[in-house]
Structures are given as C-alpha cells and as structure tokens.
Amino acid sequence: MLRGMSLAAYACQPAHSRGRRHAEAPAPTRDAFQRDRDRIVHSTAFRRLVYKTQVFLNHEGDLFRTRLTHSLEVAQLGRSIARALRINEDLVEAIALAHDLGHTPFGHAGQDALNACMAAHGGFEHNLQSLRVVDALEHRYPQYDGLNLSFETREGILKHCSRANAERIEAAEPGGVARRFLDRTQPGLEAQLCNLADAIAYNAHDIDDGVRSGLITLAQLSEVELFERYRREAMAEYPQLQGRRVLYETIRRMLSAQVYDVIDATRAALETLAPADADGVRRAPPVVAFSQAMQAQSEDLKRFLFHNLYRHPQVTQTTDQAQDVVRELFDAYLARSAEMPDSYAERDDRHRAVADYIAGMTDRFAMREHERLTGRRGIA
C-alpha cells in the first residue's frame, strides 16, 4: 500500500476485497494483500523458482536470470509504476511474486512439452498451474489446501486461460476468477500492470543475459531502435564508457523510459475513463498500456529477441533436449507411479498428478530424476 499517500478510487482496496475461498479473520497488523504477499514468499513453490529456467538452464551459469530473479524484477518495476499511479503496491507485488509459481522446469520448452503430454487430458497452461499451486498444491495450513489467497491476487495470477478451462473453473467457482475470460471483461489495474511489467522485465534482462552468454552482441542490438537510442544517449553523456557498463547504462535508461511511458499513457487513459472504482476498470477496455510509439518499439525488440536469442541454435539445441527430458519423465512416471511421492502416486487423476509433479520440479531435480529413471544424462 502507498505510504503517506491515499490510494486512488480505482485502485483495489484491501478493505473491499472480494475475500478468500475459505473465510479467515483479518490479521492484526497486515491487510489482505500484504498477507497474500507474505504467504507467497514463504511458500515452497516460491523457493523453487531460484532453480527454474528463464532462458538459460540452471547449470549454464550462475549469473543468468532464473524465475525467482525475474519475479523480483517484475515486482520492482510493478511497485514503481503502481506508486506513481496510486494503485495498490502490495497487491502488485503479490501478483508479481506469484505469477510464475506454476512454471515448469526448463522454461517455455518444459511447458510446451508438458502441454503436448497432456493434450488428451486437458493440456497444460502455466498460468492456470500457478493458480493450482496457490489454490491446491501448496500444503502449509491445517484448515485447507493451498495458500487461500484473496480473490484479487488470484485474479492477477490467472493471466491467460483457455475458454475450456475457464468454463471448468467457473463451474466450480461461479462468478470467480475465470468469469472474465467468458464475459470479456478485464482484471483490476494491479493485474493489468503486472502483465506489462512482466514483458518490460524479461525484454530487458534477456538482453543482458543474451549479451553475457555471447549469443547476441551490441552490434546486433544497434538494429533495435529502443536499445540503440539509449546506448547513443549514454555514450554522449559518458564518452569514455566501456565494457559491460555500456550495456548496464543502456538498459537502465531503456527501463526508465518504458516505466515513464506506461505511467503517462495510463494516466491519460484513466483521465478519459474516470472510473469510480476498481469494478469500473474491469468493465472498461484495457487501461494499463504503453503509448503507441513505445508499443511499436517494444514489439520490435521482442521480434529481435525471438529471432536472435530464443531461436539461436545453441538455445534451441538445449531446449530440444529439455523437452525430451520432460516427455521421458512423463512417460516414466505414468508407467511407474510408485517412483513419485505417495501424495502424487495415490491420486486418481494419474495424468494430472504426473503433470503436477513434473511442473513443480526445479531444473536440476528434473535432470537428476531423468538420469535416475533412464540411466542417461538428458542434457549435455
């Protein structure tokens, strides 16, 4: 929550939260969203993020981003923007820290492989898996499964959802977090902000990690307007700047420009919309956004990273191996469920139990389990 400044009327107010799935008495020193954030930080799934891939696998280097460091960077950017917009900083932080809790080992490669394995059994969506983690898969409290988070935090965690899954969730939770995917409404501003902060963070840190890895160069990045503009600006102010400081200063300026752009564009949209409360935001088109010019530059950067980093032969070779590991783990556990802990092995929904178990693994645990079950080292 803002310190020394009141929240705007259109912010999500903890006192007006739609509540938790299981009723609880309020905490004496924390509001609902602060409590959510703290539960997320103390969860097992949150600790596992330190050993889960962002782009480069965990064993490829100690300084590359992981899902944990990515989540922290999203939270930092989100808090900065939330404070300027007078929306709920604590809720933004809670959503940012939880948004990747359901991500598989090996990043998007693992997710794609697990989705293919589950194609005939409901598929696999990492946003939905993050919701499953906080609703059911964490076992920390005597009264219920999951973390029993507030509606607004859960709403923000479920960033994407297929219609089939939305209908299934809606049947179990009428008018709940999946309803907006059926009636085409929006989440609150805090959730919208986390979506954009996520993109800002990974574009910036993937540049850093890509250059650190040697897979992309500053010369290549000169083709990207959003990067090159701020590199030139940095060099004009500091002509003697060399080495990694050029990269760091360029990324710092680029991040600042995107943050200020989001603040200005969103403020203008809010002035036009003039929502009376958070539900007024939900009934409107998306509000948190870049200006058109910055959106175009951001998309250009995404295309560059897709072609030059995410599809680099060295990256795709590793991700292909990672997908094989996930597929072979899935088949092994399906055939020999006793190889899993009893809490998974004894479940009736065998395919989903295997998917839940694999999705919770860190990169290095998945590699160890694969070698144990197959006798082969799956990733060089």
Based on the model shown, name its key terms.
globular, single chain, mainly alpha, 380 residues
General description of the model:
With 380 residues, the chain is an all-alpha fold. The chain contains 19 helices and no strands.
Number of helical elements: 19
**pLDDT average, as an integer?**
93
Strand content: under 5%
Report the span from N to C terminus: 46 Å
Class from helix and strand fractions: mainly alpha
Question: Sheet with the most strands?
Answer: none
Low-confidence blocks of residues: none
User: What is the share of helical residues?
Assistant: 55-70%
What spatial form do the alpha-carbon principal axes imply? Answer: globular
Number of strands: 0
Q: Secondary-structure element order, as H and E?
A: HHHHHHHHHHHHHHHHHHH
Layout: helices, strands, pairs:
Elements: H1 32-41, H2 44-48, H3 67-85, H4 89-98, H5 107-117, H6 126-137, H7 151-157, H8 163-172, H9 179-183, H10 189-213, H11 218-221, H12 225-237, H13 244-273, H14 278-282, H15 292-310, H16 313-335, H17 342-345, H18 350-359, H19 363-374
Helix pairs in contact: 1-4, 3-4, 3-10, 3-13, 4-7, 4-10, 5-16, 7-10, 10-13, 10-15, 12-13, 16-18, 16-19
